[in-house]
Every structure is written in structure tokens, then in C-alpha cells.
Design goal:
16-stranded antiparallel beta sheet
Length: about 650
């Protein structure tokens, strides 16, 4: 029998202990030292208040909570605890003192004092603001000098900080209600967290114009506080959540092409999975060449095998070392590619310097070839290919360094969902931000063709530090390449949610996962443990294989508009093929969800991949092609289950 944690999350690591706190009409979840999902009458007011420790590589320390003392009364609470945060430069220990009152007000105090000099990129309170009810809405900002700014939170994602030197922020989460959050002990500023796929805006201490990483001297106390206050008529208790209504609408454009990516270090392993990739029927393979490596040509033979076996189009990603004349570096690359018998349909070229993040106020280094020079060199080297531009790193970097319009045939960027937080709910919440990223990218490019990806839960590299975070024990870790949830039902639901956002946003193509390796769709033995898969008799694929193969089948078909009544729990995408509508659903929550589908007609079949089908799906590549008759009514989906409902003539 498979461990349920492995079924859902790909790891035996237990779920963190959380509990709900109540203060009058306000509820919040205590989670590893944070107050999460602070709600008033069921409406989210603040997504999180967290005292965070980030190391020299911006990796977030996971706190170990000790000496916890909770007094939960009928109308309020008091909470005390100690938190030890281990980092590569030692531990930082801090004490939390949180209170909630009958009127819904909250006060949080965090104090810490390192025993020795402590290197960090950020230590202190961070506030996350939800997107719903905040983006596009008025916000009153009080600055540290006492001045008041009446602002509107930008609808499009801004590359720099919209609010600087902040002391307090006030918005209206509900009609007639004002919520004010106030920070003391430092100066705060706000950045648009959507840049990194986080579904929030973030207000944090230690302004970015100050140097980082920085050192907190041993024995020096860090002391900060955050308070949340409400005014106006506060609401009663919220209604209980019921079934989620999914409504199908009209035809709306075409489904995107779906591809997978291959990194040079995974090329040989990926080629061994060529037959499985072929059966998935992906449209393209994003294959990377890194000219910083002396052995950059070695993957070409494996890319050739993948292309020959799968028949998928080849899209090359080429990282230049940094010659001021990109044509000088590209000439031998083009010759090697021709000699290998490869004919790329698309090429993206980027200088290595553009893999690094340059925060607002920090200039780009001199000597980086311009977008125009890179595009001209790529066109000369690969005259038959479409030439793409943008970033191989996150949307953040694209937003901060925007390609001029009309230079490239398409624009692209990657994403990762564990840049700032790695708990299950934060990772799944990044799906909300993908819709904002797609919208903002189309705005900044003026509607030029747009291909999103490679996109993963984990990180293939770290634009913000010197390395990705090691994760040999399959934990939930920020900035890590080894991401266990990729292998579980969680990974299948996340990928369906991601592809639904990309498709419903009208992108040309989306690239996710890899043939094999840490981001693979096919199981292969790896250097790190893969619980259940390593011991099972004949596993072939992870659950996300079925999602990618299923959505790839819709490439170019007429997309059907589909809406979910609760996108926090259900994501959906649909298209029509030869009179049959194929609707794919994902339960993106860890609970059971009933789904009511509106707008179906004709006979229908239903296929579900859930806990009961996990083992069968690992060895049966056609698992999701085998539906059973569906007579209508409610579809019951377990935690992180995915489903395909096909109906029509």
C-alpha cells in the first residue's frame, strides 16, 4: 500500500502542524510561525504575516517551533513561541508574541538576537496582500515621514516597487469596512510578488536600495511589530463552501501547443525516454545548449535521437558566454547543429548575464549584447527558424528588461513556483498569478506571439543566488531543483492548473516538465530517493504524464470558454475535437470537492486519476484515455485529483 503522503506529495515528509485562531469576527491559520489567510467574514484580508529569515542566496529558512503556549478564548487569543531558523550561515532564533482581540484586531511582535554575526538577505516581518480585492483597487499608504499617498494598486505587474518607505497601508476588503496594517521597527516597502508567480503583493522590511546580503552583528537585537485594525461595520460568519459550479461557454480561439524541456545535463536520460515522449504527443521539445560548458556539443546526439523518435519540433535555447559580438559565438553552434542533423523550428538566444536578476536600482552590467544584436545574429545563424526573445529565467527578469517590440518572432520567459515559499498551499496559489503574468506579458509586448516556459514547480537554476537549494531528503524547500510534489497527484493537479491558465490566457505555446530527471514525465532512477517509485515493480510515468499527454492532444483545436465558481479549488480547461468536447478538471485543494458541470450535452464518459488510480496510472500510459459512462450529476474529486469529461456527438 502506498503511503498517502507519497501518493499526494511524492514525499514521506509529514505535513506541518497548523491550527486555526479566532479573534472576534477574524480567523487566521498559524503555520510554522506565520499567521496565514487572515479572513474577516470569510473574505481574505491579508494572505500572510511572517517573520522570515532568508539566507545569502535568498533561500527561506524553515523554522523549528518550540515552547509554544496558546490561550484561545471565546473572543480572542494570545500565543507565544520560539522559532529556530537554520541557514547555511548558522541559526537565527527569534521569539514570537501574537495577540488577537474581540474586535478582530491583531498584534504580532517578533524579536531575535543572533549569538554571532549572521549573514542574511532579509530578516524580519513580511506581509503578503491577496490579489482579489486588492489589485486594481484603492490603497491608502502612510509613509515613514507621516505623509499620505492615495493610490490604486496596479492591474498590470510592475517591475519595481510601487510603494517605498512604508509605515502603514489601508484598503477596503468589504464594502464599508477598512483594514489598516501597520509596521514598526524598520522601514518597509512593497513589491509586486506576481513577478515571481506568488499570488500576492509583498510588503517587507530592509529596503532593496540597501546592500544585501548584509550582516546582523552577534548580540544585536532585531525587534519588529505588525498590527492589523478594522473600522466600519464588521460582517457575520461566512457561508459554508458547497459544490463548485463549472460552466462551459462559447468557442474562444485555439488551444496552445504543449511542449517539454530538456536541460543539457539531462539529455542522455531524456533520450532514453523518447518512446514515452512520443506517446505523449507533445508538439515541441525545448532543448538547451550552454556555451559556458566546454562540453556544450555533447547533448546534440541525444537531442537528435529525441527529435527523430518523437517527431516533435525542436526549439533550441542557447546560452552565450558573453562575447560582445553574439555572431562570433553562434557561428560554430550553427555549424555543430547542422552537422548533428538538427533543424530547429525555433531558437532563443540569451547572454549568460541575462540569467542573473538585477533588482530595481541596480544597473545591468556593461557589455551585454542588445536584444537587437542577439536577434540579428540568431537570424543569420538560423535562417529557417523562428527567433524568440525574452528571458530563460522568470517573468521578473522579462518585466525588468523588456524586449523592444517587432524585433523577435515571439516572446518567452520561464517560471518557478518555489522562489519565495514552498508550502503546499503557497505553491498551488501560484496558479492564480500565472493568469496575471499572461495578461501582463501580452500587455507589455503589445500582443506579439507569446510562448511561456519552461515552467516547473522547482528551479533549474537560481537567478537570485549562487546555487539552487539542495534537497536530498525530498522536503518542501524554496529555490530547490529536487521537488517531490512533481511526482505526486499534487504535481498532476498543478500542471493541469498551469496549462489551463496558459490556454485560457491565449498563449501560443506552453512548455512544462521534461522527458526524465527531476522535472520528468517518465520515471527513471535518480541520485535522490523517489519513494514508492524506486521500489515498485514496473513504474513508467508520474501522474503528470497523463495531464501533459491529455492537454497536448488538444493543440490547435478550438478552445471552449470555461469558468470555475471557485478557482481556489477547481481549475478547468476545455476544447472541441470532431464534435466532442473534452473538459479537464483539477482539484487543486487537499480536500474532497464536488463539481457540478453546466453546459454539457449528448453521451459522456468520465476518467479520473486520484488516489485509487495512482498505481495503475504509473504503469498504464493510456490510463486517462479509458473513460466510463457518465450519466450526469456531480463529479466527486478527491485531494489533487484530475478528471477528463468528454461529451457530445
Amino acid at each position: 500500500m502506498v503511503d498517502r503522503n507519497v501518493l499526494l506529495y511524492g514525499t514521506t515528509e509529514p505535513l506541518p502542524e497548523t491550527f486555526e485562531l479566532k479573534a472576534g469576527p477574524v480567523t487566521a491559520t498559524f503555520d510554522a510561525g506565520q499567521l496565514r489567510w487572515i479572513r474577516l467574514g470569510g473574505v481574505e484580508v491579508i494572505r500572510a504575516i511572517s517573520f522570515l529569515i532568508r539566507d545569502r542566496n535568498w533561500s527561506t529558512a524553515i523554522p523549528q517551533i518550540d515552547n509554544l503556549k496558546l490561550d484561545q478564548g471565546e473572543n480572542g487569543f494570545s500565543l507565544e513561541f520560539d522559532a529556530r531558523c537554520p541557514t547555511i550561515d548558522g541559526d537565527f532564533v527569534w521569539h514570537g508574541s501574537y495577540r488577537g482581540e474581540a474586535d478582530g484586531s491583531l498584534t504580532l511582535v517578533g524579536k531575535g538576537r543572533p549569538e554571532k554575526d549572521f549573514v542574511t538577505c532579509r530578516t524580519g516581518f513580511v506581509i503578503l496582500h491577496p490579489l482579489r480585492g486588492v489589485v486594481g483597487e484603492p490603497m491608502t499608504v502612510e509613509h515613514v515621514d507621516g505623509s499620505i499617498e492615495e493610490a490604486v494598486v496596479p492591474a498590470e505587474i510592475v517591475p519595481d516597487q510601487p510603494y517605498l518607505l512604508v509605515r502603514a497601508m489601508t484598503h477596503s476588503p468589504l464594502p464599508g469596512v477598512r483594514a489598516t496594517i501597520r509596521m514598526e521597527g524598520d522601514s518597509w516597502e512593497t513589491e509586486d510578488h506576481r513577478n515571481w508567480t506568488d499570488a500576492s503583493l509583498k510588503t517587507y522590511s530592509r529596503p532593496l536600495f540597501l546592500p544585501w546580503p548584509y550582516t546582523i552583528p552577534g548580540g544585536e537585537e532585531v525587534s519588529q511589530s505588525v498590527s492589523l485594525r478594522f473600522s466600519g461595520k464588521l460582517p457575520a460568519k461566512p457561508a459554508q463552501a458547497g459544490p463548485v459550479a463549472v460552466n462551459l461557454g462559447n468557442e474562444a480561439g485555439a488551444m496552445p501547443e504543449i511542449g517539454i524541456s530538456v536541460l543539457p545535463e539531462d539529455a542522455e536520460l531524456a533520450a532514453s525516454a523518447s518512446a514515452l515522449v512520443k506517446q505523449a504527443s507533445v508538439s515541441h521539445l525545448n532543448c538547451r545548449l550552454d556555451l559556458r560548458s566546454a562540453a556544450w556539443q555533447e547533448p546534440l546526439v541525444h537531442y537528435r535521437r529525441l527529435a527523430d523518435v518523437t517527431g516533435a519540433k525542436l526549439a533550441l535555447e542557447i546560452i552565450l558566454r558573453g562575447d560582445p559580438e553574439p555572431a562570433v559565438e553562434l557561428a560554430p553552434v550553427a555549424a555543430a547543429i547542422r552537422e548533428a542533423g538538427l533543424s530547429p523550428a525555433a531558437v532563443v538566444v540569451t547572454p549568460a548575464a541575462d540569467l542573473v536578476s538585477y533588482p530595481p536600482g541596480r544597473p545591468f552590467p556593461a557589455g551585454i549584447p542588445s536584444f537587437e544584436a542577439v536577434a540579428a545574429a540568431a537570424r543569420a545563424a538560423f535562417p529557417g527558424a523562428r527567433i524568440g526573445g525574452g528571458m530563460l529565467s522568470n517573468f521578473t527578469e522579462l518585466n525588468r528588461k523588456r524586449p523592444p517590440r517587432g524585433v523577435f518572432d515571439f516572446i518567452t520567459h520561464a517560471t518557478s513556483s518555489v522562489v519565495h515559499a514552498a508550502d503546499d498551499r503557497s505553491v498551488m496559489e501560484t496558479l492564480e498569478s500565472i493568469g496575471h503574468i499572461v495578461h501582463s506579458t501580452k500587455k507589455l509586448t503589445g500582443g506579439e506571439p507569446y510562448r511561456i516556459g519552461p515552467s516547473h514547480i522547482g528551479n533549474s537554476f537560481n537567478p537570485y543566488g549562487s546555487r539552487v537549494t539542495p534537497n536530498p531528503d525530498n522536503g518542501r524547500v524554496t529555490m530547490a531543483r529536487v521537488e517531490p510534489r512533481h511526482r505526486g497527484l499534487f504535481g498532476a493537479a498543478w500542471h493541469l492548473g498551469f496549462l489551463s491558465q496558459a490556454a485560457n490566457g491565449g498563449v501560443e505555446a506552453a512548455t512544462v516538465a521534461s522527458p526524465a530527471g527531476e522535472f520528468g514525465i517518465a520515471y527513471r532512477k535518480l541520485a535522490h530517493a523517489q519513494p514508492w517509485f524506486d521500489e515498485a515493480a514496473s513504474p513508467q510515468v508520474y501522474p503528470l504524464y497523463h495531464v501533459i499527454a491529455g492537454i497536448a492532444a488538444g493543440a490547435g483545436r478550438p478552445r471552449t470558454e470555461v469558468s470555475s465558481g471557485d478557482t481556489d479549488r477547481i481549475r478547468a480547461v476545455a476544447w472541441k475535437d470532431a464534435g466532442v468536447t473534452h473538459l479537464w478538471l483539477a482539484n487543486t485543494s487537499d480536500g474532497i470537492v464536488d463539481v457540478s458541470v453546466q453546459g454539457t450535452s449528448g453521451s459522456a464518459t468520465l476518467a479520473v486519476l486520484d488516489e485509487a488510480g495512482f498505481e495503475g496510472a504509473a504503469s498504464d500510459l493510456d490510463f486517462m484515455s479509458k473513460g466510463t459512462p457518465f450519466a450526469g450529476g456531480t463529479i466527486n474529486l478527491g485531494a489533487f485529483a484530475v478528471a477528463r469529461l468528454s461529451f457530445g456527438s
